[in-house]
Amino acid sequence: MIFLYVITLIKTTCRCGLGILNKKLNVDDNESQRFYEIYGYITNFSRIVIPLFVVYLNTYYGLWFVLSLSIIFNLVGMLTSYFDNTFRPDANGGINSTAVERFSLIQQLKSKPDLYLLVSAYTLSNLAFFLSNDMLGIFFEKIGQSESSIGYIISLLGVGGIIGMRISGWLLKKLSAKNLLLFSVMVNFVAFWGFGFLDAKTNHYATYYLLIFLVGTASGVTFFAIRYGVRNIIGFEHVGKATGGIQKISSIVAILMPIIGGYTAKLISIEFTFKLTSILLAVIFLYFLFKKYKLTEKRNMYV
């Protein structure tokens, strides 16, 4: 069991690194919207197909076969990247390294209200989300679903993520990144309100799979809004540093909140964590809607 925890730690650490570095793959700011849209489609498509594939392999070949296959795929990806000799322009050629070293996310948050609203809304919504996120699989087992429901949940999150990415690409023509993020908070509120306040005895289990789809949709919108928003405000030169700073904050939230959520669920109930999450999301949505209104009002005074 300890070996599995070690593997999970290594895997999570590597994912954090990739999450920061892949922002530097796209150099042209004008293409960043399309880049993040396609990147999101690929990510969410894998979330649909791979969990179903893993459920099948785990059923017929066992857990260690799945882990071995995962290691092989990771090695293939690493070696392919390392030995890739195709021509790549020097994306960092025009970047002032001294300016990058002097970059401060805190100063950027203080000087750019839009960035502050985006990052703080994202962080607080993550705080509420991670309080209950890990309880979803346990909840489905509690209402009588089999172990394979975990695979279906992840796949539905992927389907919702693709829809969320598509919605984001369309809404971005009319809304800003921070408005997109507020939209995702609202969708998450609806989903977790359903998990917390609907009666599992009187509602069909398909209702809860629909709510999972909504969580996936909100995740897709959030994925797009935070990445495109930060890139659009910060620019290519500092996007790696900014993303790394945001990732540090999110990592702390992702570590602490599931522990608090698990303890709360054990002490009271799983449904209570969902209720608490939905209430927090509602407060976050209304607060940042008000802050956005005040910021817009302040800007209009100088027009």
From TrEMBL:
<dbReference type="Pfam" id="PF07690">
    <property type="entry name" value="MFS_1"/>
</dbReference>
<feature type="transmembrane region" description="Helical">
    <location>
        <begin position="38"/>
        <end position="57"/>
    </location>
</feature>
<dbReference type="GO" id="GO:0022857">
    <property type="term" value="F:transmembrane transporter activity"/>
</dbReference>
<protein>
    <recommendedName>
        <fullName>Major facilitator superfamily (MFS) profile domain-containing protein</fullName>
    </recommendedName>
</protein>
<dbReference type="InterPro" id="IPR020846">
    <property type="entry name" value="MFS_dom"/>
</dbReference>
<feature type="transmembrane region" description="Helical">
    <location>
        <begin position="208"/>
        <end position="228"/>
    </location>
</feature>
<dbReference type="InterPro" id="IPR011701">
    <property type="entry name" value="MFS"/>
</dbReference>
<keyword id="KW-1003">Cell membrane</keyword>
<dbReference type="GO" id="GO:0005886">
    <property type="term" value="C:plasma membrane"/>
</dbReference>
<feature type="transmembrane region" description="Helical">
    <location>
        <begin position="152"/>
        <end position="172"/>
    </location>
</feature>
<feature type="domain" description="Major facilitator superfamily (MFS) profile">
    <location>
        <begin position="114"/>
        <end position="303"/>
    </location>
</feature>
<feature type="transmembrane region" description="Helical">
    <location>
        <begin position="115"/>
        <end position="132"/>
    </location>
</feature>
<feature type="transmembrane region" description="Helical">
    <location>
        <begin position="63"/>
        <end position="83"/>
    </location>
</feature>
<dbReference type="InterPro" id="IPR036259">
    <property type="entry name" value="MFS_trans_sf"/>
</dbReference>
<feature type="transmembrane region" description="Helical">
    <location>
        <begin position="179"/>
        <end position="196"/>
    </location>
</feature>
<keyword id="KW-1133">Transmembrane helix</keyword>
<keyword id="KW-0812">Transmembrane</keyword>
<feature type="transmembrane region" description="Helical">
    <location>
        <begin position="249"/>
        <end position="266"/>
    </location>
</feature>
<feature type="transmembrane region" description="Helical">
    <location>
        <begin position="272"/>
        <end position="290"/>
    </location>
</feature>
<keyword id="KW-0472">Membrane</keyword>
